Amino acid sequence: MTTKVLVIDDSAVMRKLLTELINSNPDLEVVGAAPDAHVAREMIKTLNPDVLTLDVQMPRMDGLEFLERLMRLRPTRVVMVSAFTEAGSDTTLRALELGAIDFIGKPRVDSPAAMTEYAEELADKLRGAAAARLKRVVPAAATATRPAVPVSSAKTSGNGNLIFVGASTGGTEAIKDFLLGFPADCPPTLIVQHMPENFTASFAKRLDSLCAPRVIEAQGGERLEPGTVYVAPGHSHLQIRRQGGGYITELLATPPVNRHRPSVDVLFDSAAELIGKQAVGVILTGMGKDGAQGLLRMRQAGARTFGQDEASCVVYGMPREAALVGAVEEVSSLENMSRRVLASAARVVA
Question: Among all residues, which ones are annotated catalytic?
């Protein structure tokens, strides 16, 4: 079955390029290309596309305003196309909050190798978006302020346990919802979210403003402390290393694993090797299979392991792959995940 795509971009050159790249895949077809949101609105009514690619910066009505109206009036699967800048990353994170499924940067036209890689990534993201569940969008006011700190217990952070989390498509909002259930003194928590390097710092800042624990982008060499969440930077793998009587973060600029850097498998493998039964592993919504083998190795080393259930996933890919290989000990909805994980972490013993 062919996925119908509508390209929305104010640049005629970009519309032509994206159309050519998308149409090079037999299972994807560009059914229309719109220069602005007003034209796009009419084309959506007549063409009924499965997925939109949406530029952030457009005349007459910008991408965010159009997206907010679209998701309120006619929820549609959207992949944002954004410049990889700090301002672009903040806008893209807001778009994901408004209901966009995924995002991708603008293509680099100066490198044939980069263009080939981009074409593959774009096709993957469109396929993932086409298979994604449309989620109810929570009004912006509901997430505008930091919530009251959840009730906690010394048991959640006082016995040396650590929590390891991996996610991809749909993960930015899933991780936010997951961490909103964490107390300020939660166990040290490490997160890999598939995301380009210019986006992870903004992602960590956004989480830090919304959640009770401190959330930072890992720089490498930070000592793991209760009450802190460490987000892998987009340019490096994240793992842990022993130092003295504790553990520190370590960044690796080694090649991608499962086509990703950072890779969930790299983080989970370090947990399996160094932490074993003192670890809790969590795999959330995402496309592909990154993290499945690493979570299995964590479980084999004695860790408690969790997978998000299909009903609450935007894309039930990574959790499904992990379940298929026997890596998932307990399946949980996103709504209950933080409570179940914290309860499990409190029971972890040395």
Answer: 168, 194, 290
